[in-house]
Design goal:
The protein is mainly beta. It has a single domain, classed as Ubiquitin-like (UB roll). The protein has a five-stranded mixed β-sheet with strand order 2-1-5-3-4, with helices on one face. It is globular, with a radius of gyration of 11 Å. Bound molecules: FE2/S2 (inorganic) cluster. The site of FE2/S2 (inorganic) cluster has 12 residues, from loops.
């Protein structure tokens, strides 16, 4: 089990390695905007703490070995 911390609101939830990020977010009461759900439209982009590049939440899962896992939600007014 891994602690996932959603920023900027600092919502913490426990998740299993390999669990889809969208599912973890939904359980935490967080809605990540989505579009295609296939990794193409990038509506669901989030930042993983410590990673330079944003990832598409719809095709990402909780990774092994990062605990706590910090997820930075974009507040992008264009979406
Ligand atoms: S919803 Fe389109 S890339 Fe994730």
């Amino acid at each position: 089990m891994i602690t996932v911390q959603f920023m900027p609101d600092n919502v913490t939830v426990i998740a299993e390695v390999g669990e889809p990020l969208l599912k973890v977010a939904a359980r935490a009461g967080i809605t990540i905007p989505t579009g295609c759900l296939m990794g193409s439209c990038h509506a669901c982009e989030v930042e993983v703490e410590g990673d330079a590049d944003p990832i598409c939440a719809c095709i990402s899962a909780v990774p092994v070995g990062v605990d706590p896992l910090g997820i930075n939600l974009y507040v992008d007014p264009t979406w």
